[in-house]
Design brief:
Translation Initiation Factor IF3, 19% helix
Length: 218
């Protein structure tokens, strides 16, 4: 649903007239219904309404806001074997990849032009739980005299967003982080706001987006 690595739901529709486009650009999100039909998973017919969380992101998107953080909070509340349902204006492929990374199987159905319903099921854990791995963050990390730097260029979605948030939430910094990115990470910004962090754009080469992140006072 967006071209940038971290974009899972676009903040604003493209085009000067405010109309929602058929596709949000280069990421696989589309309102078109041509091409092979998506196979209906077996679990779709057994969705338990008592274990279903619902969200309609169409009004949020129409208002120019970013619903990604709210969708992620809803997803966190879904237990193993539970379900979620998202009403969206088109098929949000990057969002579905983020949900897959969080243990969801997803299925999308186009109900009408400009109306998709995305179903998700959090998969049950299989077998014996594996020992917890040591926390790690993708991306190259180093320190300068006053900041911790993280370079997430070249990582596939959703790894840039996950890596940056892992660094923020994991500590090991002084509340001053510099991010080196390939694109403007639009859906990092709501996550920063939720955590009380601020950001500003730094001068950088043409092919790089460089952000300074500042944490709340301690």
């Amino acid at each position: 649903m967006a071209g940038a690595d971290d974009e899972a739901l676009p903040a604003k529709p493209a085009g000067g007239d405010g109309a929602r486009p058929l596709a949000c650009g280069g990421c696989g999100c589309t309102d078109r219904d041509d091409g092979p039909a998506e196979a209906v998973p077996d679990w779709r017919e057994h969705v338990d309404p008592d274990r279903l969380r619902r969200m309609d992101v169409r009004p949020v998107l129409a208002g120019g806001e970013a619903p990604f953080a709210a969708v992620m909070r809803m997803a966190e509340d879904v237990a193993a074997g539970g379900f979620l349902m998202i009403e969206a204006p088109f098929d949000p492929q990057p969002l579905r990849r983020v949900l897959a990374a969080k243990g969801f199987s997803t299925y999308g159905e186009r109900l009408d032009p400009g109306h998709w319903r995305i179903w998700g099921r959090r998969d049950e854990p299989r077998g014996r739980p594996e020992p917890a791995a040591e926390p790690r963050s993708d991306g190259r990390i180093w320190r300068s005299s006053d900041a911790v730097h993280i370079d997430v260029r070249g990582l596939e979605a959703p790894r840039p967003l996950v890596a940056i948030l892992a660094l923020i939430d994991g500590g090991g910094h002084n509340g001053h982080i510099v991010v080196h990115h390939e694109r403007d990470p639009l859906y990092l910004y709501p996550e920063l706001e939720d955590r009380g962090w601020h950001y500003r754009r730094l001068p950088s080469p043409e092919e790089e987006v460089r952000l300074e992140l500042l944490g709340p006072p301690r």
